[in-house]
Amino acid sequence: MTVTSGRRERKKAATRQRIADTALQLFLERGYEAVGIRDVAAEADVAVTTLFSHFASKEALVFERDDDFEQRLTQAVTGRTPDEPLIPALRREIQALVRHCTADSATPIWRMINGSPALREYEESMRLRHAETLAATIAADPDLSQTTTASRTIARFVIDAYSLAREAPDPDAALDEIFRMIEAAWAVTRPSGNPTGPAGL
Question: What pTM value is reported for the model?
Answer without folding.
Answer: 0.84
